[in-house]
Amino acid sequence: MKNYYFNTNPKHFGINNVFDKEVFGHLTLCEKDSVFITPTQFTKKNISPEHALRLKEKYKIENIIMFDRIVGIKNNILITDHINRSGTSFIRGKTPHKKLPMFPDMSGVYIKNTKNNNQTVHTLGPKNYKNPPNEVGVVFSEAAAITATLWHYVGVDVRCYGVVDTNALNNPLCPL
Q1: Whose CA is closest to 146, among 66, 65, 59?
Q2: Is residue 19 within 8 Å of 176, Cβ to Cβ?
Q3: Which of 4, 16, 143, 144 is the most exposed place for a label (fewest CB within 10 A)?
Q4: Which residues in the chain come in under a pLDDT of 70?
Q5: What is the number of domains present in the chain?
Q6: CATH no. for residue 90?
Q7: For residue 140, how many C-alpha atoms fall within 13 Å in the half-sphere facing its CB?
Q8: How far is 148 from 157, CA to CA, in rounded Å?
Q9: CA-to-CA separations, 41 to 7, 10, 169, in angstroms, rounded
Q10: Domain residues for 17?
Q11: Do the domain assignments include residue 169?
């Protein structure tokens, strides 16, 4: 089964399907051999270790393909590292959860692919993404560092794609 996670409304990535079920603070759509997941709201209540672990168990998620919006570059990229400049972490104060570690190793959050355009992004979070700093050569993401670390914490391998979206600056993390 392929699992897809969208940090924001999937329509920004060309996915116009109707999500048909709300599960653990997320909207989901199951189609054939794929599960599409997006948070109902970008809050610590909805995006938490508890909910990520429940989603992992319910859908038997071992790896996930994540999509996040980016600015500061002209082409889509494979995100292989991040710097979290958002001030937000949904695992802060939430560890240890069950038998997971209190201080998780975050050195290998992303699945890397040497054949693709690997890139480190600076995650700004929904509040700051609308007005990114004017820094030449820096790629800014909306939420990759915030959500990828959560999935990594619960034992899911993450492959994250940064998708250039010309509307991103007008619609930060739009709810469905």
Answers
A1: 66
A2: yes
A3: 16
A4: 114, 116-117, 166-176
A5: 1
A6: 3.40.50.1580
A7: 22
A8: 9
A9: 10, 13, 18
A10: 2-164
A11: no
